[in-house]
Amino acid sequence: MSLRLAPEFSLLCLAARPAIYGDMEALRRAIGTTTDWPAVIEGAQRNRVTPLVLASLQGCGSTQIPAEVLAELRRQTIVSVGRSLAKIPALERLCATFAQSKIRFLIVKGIPLSLQLYGEATRRTADDIDVVVSPDQFWQADAALTQSGYRYEAELPSAARLESYTHWVKHVRYISERFQIVVELHHRLTGNPYLLEWQFDELWQDRVHIRVGETEVPTLPSRKLPLYLFAHGANHAWERLRWLVDLTTVLQRSGGTENLLSEAEKAGLRPALLQALVLAHEWLGFPLAAQYLDQASKDPQVKRLDFCLGHFLGRTNWRGRPQLNSWEWLWRFSIWFFLYNLSLKADWRYRAYQCAAIWIHPPDWDIVRLPPALFWLYPLIRPFGWMMRRLRR
Question: Using CA atoms, how far apart are residues 361 and 379, in angstroms rounded to an integer?
Answer without folding.
Answer: 8
